[in-house]
Structure of HSP20 family protein:
Amino acid sequence: MLMRTDPFRELDRFAQQVFGSPGTWSKPAAMPMDAYRAGDEFVVCFDLPGVTKDAIELDIERNVLTVKAERRPLPGGDDVQMQVSERPLGVFSRQLFLGDTLDAENIKADYEAGVLTLRIPVAEKAKPRRIEIAGTESDRRQIKA
């Protein structure tokens, strides 16, 4: 199971409603995410438009997965004068707390069209399995008859 805790998320939402701008503690809107289960894996997608593949870092320590991405300013010289700058720049980070039922050793990552997709398999120990019932040979014969 995928667990997510972000203690400042609600505070940011409240600040955005009251003041009309994102809060200063964390920026979840800069790295929106979807997470769902598809068969025997969890799929997590992050929207990272304008971020190059080499500007993304994925780290895992114990059961905490950290996604860090940097949106850099457009290249230009001294002759460039910005007219409108609404896209946030800088380093953005999200942390996901992975449950013990996920196989953190076999995470696969793919980045295409500004979307980072992580595929996290469900651990073998967490998958449903059939349990054989032991009994004597005479018990087995009686059941078949």
Summary: The beta strands are 2-3, 33-38, 41-47, 56-61, 64-71, 90-98, 108-112, 115-121. Confidence is low (pLDDT under 50) at residues 22-28. The first strand starts at residue 2 and ends at 3.
